[in-house]
Amino acid sequence: MPTVAVKLYSVFFKFLLKHRLQTRIQSPSDESDPFGITSRPDESIASSNPSFTDGVATKDIHIDSFTSLSIRIFLPESALSNPEPNSKPKRKPEAKGSGNGNGNGNAATDSPLFNVRRNSYGPSGFPMKETPPTRRNSVGSDPDMTLMSSGSYGGYSPTLDDRKRKLPVMVQFHGGGWVSGSNESVANDFFCRRIAKLCDSVVVAVGYRLAPESRYPAAFEDGFNVLNWLAKQANLAECSKSLGIKKCDGGHKHIVDSFGASMVEPWLAAHGNLSRCVLLGVSCGANIANYVARKAVETGKLLDPVKVVAQILMYPFYVGSVPTHSEIKLANSYFYDKAMCMLAWKLFLPEKEFSLDHPAANPLVPGQGPPLKLMPPTLTVVAEHDWMRDRAIAYSEELRKVNVDAPVLEYKDAVHEFATLDVLLRSPQAQVCAEDIAIWVKKYISLRGHEFSY
Fold first, then answer.
1. Which superkingdom is the protein from (predicted)?
2. φ, ψ of residue 157 in degrees (nearest 5)
3. Would you say 128 and 99 are in contact if contact means Cβ atoms under 8 Å apart?
4. What SS3 state is found at 356?
5. Could you give the residue numbers annotated as active site?
6. Residues 110-126: pLDDT tens digits?
7. Every domain of the chain and the residues it spans
8. Which helix (H) or strand (E) holds 240?
9. What are phi and psi of 309, to 5 degrees?
10. Confidence at residue 84, expressed as pLDDT on a 0 to 100 scale
């Protein structure tokens, strides 16, 4: 059974959420807000920190001038190490950002940034804790990649350098029942930091528009728009890198918008490998991730160089008109019970489209295209005391029937959001879950091939 602390927090959480949902149901807004909001005023927010703290730097970016869509980038400090353990710098041995240069260590075991059971997809061999690379703290300190700004940035500013280590990119969608939650919340910030370090990847947490201000399909469109933005970033980075070869007026050319600001996000340009992109969705965010994966399959090469190689669905927010065993037995489960979920769906789906078998709600509804056999490898995480558990397992079984790698990890004595509310719950299963995710996903983001690394 869940701990006493989990039970008490669940009662408090359900009371607040039920009050919030009922208030919005009773006083609906007649006009939708196309710009939308991505966070509620009562949400506890963790400020971004562009310098490396606890092994991860974060940066917030508003990526759509027509909506409130934003992202928070989590950059692990391992990105500062040299890409190969025995490689020598092409220019000077003392070049910034090249590590200690001895090539004898193993970053996965020597550095405290890595769990001893996990090995990175491309170990750097440089103990970063002992000899961290020199960081650039001013925007204008490097002519190869700058953010056009009148003041000092005060964060890490990389260069477009071939020796920069390229990491896979994980696009993360937070939970919150469509109406709450945030990519900047304390709980989501804590979870994404853990994933960035364990998976040794750049995490892009998406701040999609919330309901009822922005109903379906706003959140789904925001998810796919982030993939399009990432593809644009990769292409702009290549153009900027080509232009940077020629100097003009003592500096390097770069692509800027009409206001003079750089259009290229330097963290992604220098450290992101978008040919190894993973989608990670939490609760209702898992519904978004699965939709984005389907759209990515349909779009195909038009998303190049972005390639979705895998997706992770953590206790997805699935329902259906025909109840499953868990939906009957655990209807009054912890955190999100069935009654509150119905309220959330009523706020998210347009009134004329409300149905428990809506394509956004039930993944087993036929005709959603493309064929399931084309879906990327899918890891599903479920909790024992979650009423939505059985439908998530059923979707995973359908994927396995068409030979998609789709394992299910079920955690005993766990509740909905157990791994992503760990900053509050301190659940022993949360760390184990994050480590299990890291083991599985490295089969698809490893530079050395499909392998398990310990």
1. Eukaryota
2. -125, 105
3. yes
4. coil
5. 283, 386, 416
6. 443 333 333 333 333 33
7. 4-81+160-445
8. helix 218-243
9. -95, -15
10. 58
